Amino acid sequence: MRIVIARLNHETNTFSPILTPLAAFRPTWGERAVDESRGMKAALGAFHAYAERVGAEISCPLIAHAWPSGPVDDSAFEAMSTAILADVSKGCDMILLDLHGAMVTQSYDDGEGELLSRVRNAAQGIPIGVALDLHGNITQRMIENCDALAGFKTYPHVDMVETGELVCSIMERIRRGEPRPRIALAQPPLIAHTLAMNTTVPGAMAEVIDCAVRAERQPGVLAVSFFGGFPAADIHDAGASIVAVTEHHLSPHEIAEDIARQAWSRREGFVYDQKPLGQSISLASAAARRFGTGPVLMLDHGDNCMSGGTCENMDVLQAALKAGLTGIVAGPINDRGVVAQAFAAGMGAEIEIEVGNKIFADGFSPPDPSLKLKGRISALGDGRYTISGPIYTGMVCDMGRSAVIDTGTARVLICEEAHEPWDQAVFTSLGIEPQSATYLILKSRMYCRPVFEPLAKAVIECAGGGVTGSDYSLFPFRKLRRPIYPIDADATWEQPDG
Question: Considering the chain, what percentage of its residues have pLDDT values greater than 70?
Fold first, then answer.
């Protein structure tokens, strides 16, 4: 028995000006990919473990993961999909794919649907199982070209391996000769705000996920996934969706439609009430004066790395400095030119820089001029560190060469790559203890929280400029299905009977 497993992940912000060539995926091919898939804290790791349990020969043609950015280059997509197809074409008994669900390429709005269609054509009759991210924008083409599909149920995502195991449990039924399951998709006209998708706090997202979990416990129901969707994608199918997978004798449509009704009835709970930046700065200042220890965590979610932000919009830091806030630690900020300037000047040198606001996005208002800062270079480093925190534990990260500029009122960490603050080591690797800050400004929305929220006396979400904000009126949507709530406040839905 031969099982092909592969991982190809990208969450595409179609508004992002950050390019996504093949190099962005840092692809691993062939035998090395087989080795790396063993024990991986992702659905792919669960696939490898399952294949070993059933005594299969394991082939992994590709492991590729790029951080969120603009549409994937066609040449990159073709190279990666060709590698998977070539391996599948050698003959196999099962295919298990760890995908995202929101990949857009230069030519294909539905990257996963295109890939799965090609895989199905190359391996007709071979069962295909797919694990997806909770932020997938699911299409009918995806579910028509696989036999099992399930998505994460947590955000921040901590159940990647469990999702892979759920897919494997369905695929094991097929391996034993049971009839192939049935799959159904439901899509209410709802495009949720990402900041309203946190599953760790009470609210609509947690409630609908709970509905999906309860439905999944019913006899004959194999998987029920509620996808919040990825809103920063100008494609027809962006938004919330539900996929139900059942044994062959049951209808998954009623289950998917019931969960869709549950989501639609709670639609106001998927709207994030974004405050003006000035108000957020005032709230942060007030929070800093309250009793307690730790920094005020200020999340610059309009320029969020993990949604395709450039990580160099300076609105929040500029507003904080203008308001007289001191004791600031900010970063990581992406500006290769400033890093080069800092390395040329050397450790301890006094330096004047113009940082950020240099990358323009089509359809958005141009940013303000670069922020001028004067200070001392207090740290230089290679930007490499190992995560010790709860998300992606043990992963070696690289934010490129990095420098810290100390202005007296702010210590600003500047690096060569857009980079999510996964871990305290982002700062400690450059001599900064995050707890020493009065205000900690991070270009993050959610993934920083398991690490930095326990250190903070307060968390303030700050709406700076950028391509990852929550004000949909700023996004030049052209392809998105309309009307859709809350962009169209009067959107209605003729719900299926149930």
Answer: 99
What residues contact 175, with CB distance under 8 A and at least 6 apart?
54, 93, 94, 127
So what's the pLDDT on residue 497?
60
Helix (H) or strand (E) holding 373: strand 371-381
Q: Which of 260, 270, 123, 93 is nearest to 187 (CA)?
A: 260
Q: How far apart are CA 368 and CA 359, in angstroms?
A: 11
Nearest partner of 65 among 42, 96, 31, judged by Cα: 42
Give the torsion sign (CA, 411, 358, 298, 383): negative
Radius of gyration from C-alpha coordinates of the chain: 23
Q: What is the dihedral of CA 227, 232, 234, 237, to 10 degrees?
A: 0
| Whether this model's pTM surpasses 0.85 | yes
Q: Which amino acid is at 467?
A: V
pLDDT of 498 over the 60 cut: no
Count of H-run helices and E-run strands, the chain: 13, 20
**Predicted confidence (pLDDT) per residue in 449-459, tens digit:** 999 999 999 99
Residue 391 has pLDDT above 90, yes or no: no
The one-letter code for the residue type at 108 is Y
Q: Which residues of 443-463 are buried (b: 16+ CB within 10 A; e: fewer)?
A: bbbbbbbbbbeebbebbbbbb
* Cis peptide upstream of residue 486 (ω within 30 degrees of 0): yes
Q: Is the pLDDT of residue 77 over 80?
A: yes
Residue 43 makes CB contacts below 8 A (sequence gap 6+) with 7, 98, 131, 160, 161, 163, 164, 167
> Which DSSP letter does residue 310 get?
-
Q: Is the backbone peptide bond immediately before 454 cis, with ω within 30 degrees of 0?
A: no
